[in-house]
Every structure is written in C-alpha cells, then in structure tokens.
Amino acid sequence: MPSETARYVRRLKPHLRLGDALESDFLREIEAHMEDRVASLVARGVPEPLARRRAVQGFGRPRTLAHLMRQAQLTTSWREALLGAAPFALLAALLGLQVWQVPAVAGAGSALIIGFTLYGLWLGRPAWFYPWAGVALLMPVFAGYLAFAVLRAELWNAVHGAATPYALAGIAGAGLYFPIGLLVVAVSVLVAARRDWLDASMLLSPLPIVFVWIIEVHRGGGLLAADGSLSGMAPVLAAICLCAAAAAFVFLRATSRALKCATLVGGALLLVLAATLLIDPSGGLMTLGGRAVILLAFLLSPALVARHA
Amino acid sequence: MMRGNYLTQLLKGNTDVMILSLLEREPMYGHQLMEQLERTSAGFFHVSEGTLYPALYRLAREDLVRGRWSKLPTGQERKFYTLTRKGERRLAECRSMWSGFAAAMDLVTTHGD
C-alpha cells in the first residue's frame, strides 16, 4: 500500500468504530478506490506524487469521514428496529402473562434470548443486537441474585456454627461469582462503548428494569417463594417493559444522536417515575430526583468509558 | 458564493437519486460511479469520495443497494454495487417526485406572474 494511503487509513481507523467486518470492508474499499483514482489521474497527465495526494484529499479529513460513515450507519430499518424492541416485548409477555417462573417458558425465553444474542454477534453486532445482549445480561444478574441468596444462607449457617465443607464451598463460589459477573458486564460495556457509547447505553438499558424486578422477587420471598404476579407488580413491570420496547424502537429508528440520547434519557426518567409511583410511592421528590440522577449516571456512563477506551 | 452554495445544496439533496439512477444501468464500484457521474453530467457534477462512500453505505444499510466484491478482468477485486428491488421502487418514486418538482419549479421560475 502506498505510504499516503497507509497514512490516511492509519489516521482514519481509530475514529471509524463501525465494527470489525464493516470496517475492514470499508478500508479495503478505500485502498482500492485510491489505487483507481491515482491510475485515473496519472492517465490524465497528473504526476504520480500529486495524484496520490489528490486521491487522499478527495476523502477529506479522516475524522470527518469517520463521522459521516458512523452517521450513515445510524439508519436502521423498521424490521431491525422491531427486532431490537422484541426482547423488551418478550419480557413484557413473560411478566404480563405471569409465566416467568414456569420452567419450560423461562427456559424457552432464555434460549431465544441467547440464540438472538449469539446470532447478532455472528452478524457483527448490528444495531438490534444491543437490546438482546442487554436482556441476555438478565441471566447473569439473576444468577447473581441466586449467588447472593446462597451466600446469605451459608453465611448464616457458618455464623451459627453449622458450617459444612459444602457450605464453605458455597460461600466461596457465591463470593467468587460477583467479581466474575461484574467483569462480564464491564467487558460487555467496554467492547460496546469502543464502537459507540450509545450502543453500550442501550446494552445497559434493560438492567434497571431487571433490578426493579429482582427487588420485587426479593420482597416476595425469593425466586421460588414469590408468586407469579409479584403481588400485583408483574403487570406494572410488563407495562414498563412495553415502554422500554417503544423506547428501543424509537432509539433504533432515530437518525440523529441527539434524538437517541433524548430517547435514552426520557425512557430512564419514565422508568424512575413509574417505579417510584407504582412500587414505592413513599419517597418524596428528593428520592425521585436522586434515583433519576443515579439511573442517568448509570445509563450514560459508557460515554465516559468511551472517552478513555 | 451564492451560486456555489445553491449547487452544493442541490447536489447534496440529490446524491442518492443520482447513485441509484447510475446503478440502474449496470452494477458499478465506487470509483467507477464517481467517474460515470462526472462523464454523464458532462463534467457538471463532481461528487467527492467523502460524500460518495457515506451515501453508498447509507443506501446499503437501507437495503436500497447491495455491495459485493468481484474480480475485474485484471484480477483486482472491487466492490460492485447493484440496485435492489427496494432500490428500484425508491428510484421510481424519486423520479416521479422529481418530475413533479421540476415541472412546478419551471412554472414558478419562468412564469412567476
């Protein structure tokens, strides 16, 4: 590759963040284009060094081109946007129909979520992948809740002198789960944020809903003891999931970053309001504001990660 | 200055239609599209690479064109773009809108009274 082209590609690459497959395809196309452009200019009598410079100049500043290419990828079709909203709709169905505890249904739902997430990974992480991957994180989070339950029970046994080797193994396993689980979430966010922090925020967006869900499960006495309706809260959570599905749809269809941001922020505020008014109405305005700030900081944290990634 | 801006805006708004129109004739790769556009418009239109490729990738994302790497007789590989069915339909819509727009514009600019 001539040095001008190589230099341009080297300067462009860090800013592209289109995903491995698309990025290498585009860079290959640029190289081919520059080769053709130089040949065409030389054939018209332009000296080769000048032709090389002109070929590079046509692409403009690397940062600008990278920005335009990323903007071009913001467009998502109706079908893809619907696919991206589907995992939230699936959660809404599981909660609304109160079948989330039925092992066969939970198993089928999990298989569907894992299947779509892996398919999205295989396709090179299209826009609809992130909501699915975010909902897939529900599984390690619920496993974390189980680990917490095991840890609590076994610690109680250990404190009261009933520690068996199994209990100690349980404590060690459960204790080990949290850093590993956190690492899985952190790595997922980091990888997503490297391409676009908005994708990483979308990845995180199902987690607050899952958090509220787990609180309700915990209040109901745990995963096995809680009733399917979560004392009437399951339909509320289902409605929140439907709102999240609508927000994911708008987010994916939006062609401007500002609108995507607004959708994320609006969805988060709606979740805080719904969760506070319907699940815990005792908190005042300060509590509401505090929760909103925490949730927004959580959802928008990938922007900071991306800055340092 | 005013003339340049006006032309830039016109070109910007119609790059997609021009690309779709050229691809309707035959599959082409990026550089070929750029040269063909200049040649077909008798040198009037020049779309820079910085405009062409984002437009091509946007059209591909919207499933209006499809890119596929193929070998040239020289052995070099180039990414050829073809129009999809959806692209054909979009082009037909744009053409119909364009002729309505051009006719109306002509009426306004030449018979302003």
What's the short story on this structure?
Chain A is mainly α and 309 residues long. Chain A is built from 14 helices and no strands.
How many distinct beta strands of chain A? 0
DSSP helical segment count of chain B: 4
**Overall domain count of chain A:** 2
Principal-axes shape call of chain B: globular
General description of the model:
The complex is a heterodimer of chains A (309) and B (113). With 309 residues, chain A is mainly α. Helices cover 80% and strands 0% of the residues of chain A. The mean pLDDT of chain A is 85. Chain A is built from 14 helices and no strands. Chain A has 2 domains: 3-65, no CATH class; 77-308, no CATH class. Chain A has helices at 3-16, 20-43, 48-57, 62-72, 78-96, 103-122, 129-136, 138-159, 165-195, 197-204, 206-219, 234-253, 257-279, 285-308. With 113 residues, chain B is α+β, with helices and mostly antiparallel strands. Chain B has a single domain (2-109), classed as Winged helix-like DNA-binding domain superfamily/Winged helix DNA-binding domain (Arc Repressor Mutant, subunit A, Orthogonal Bundle), CATH 1.10.10.10. In chain B, strands 1-3-2 form a 3-stranded antiparallel sheet. In chain B, helix 1 crosses helix 3 (49-61) and helix 1 runs antiparallel to helix 4 (85-110). Chain B starts with a helix and ends with a helix. The mean pLDDT of chain B is 88. The A-B interface holds A 25-26, 28-30, 32-33, 35-37, 40, 58-60, 64-65, 68-69, 71-73, 75-77 and B 29-32, 35, 48-50, 53-55, 57-58, 61-63, 76-79.
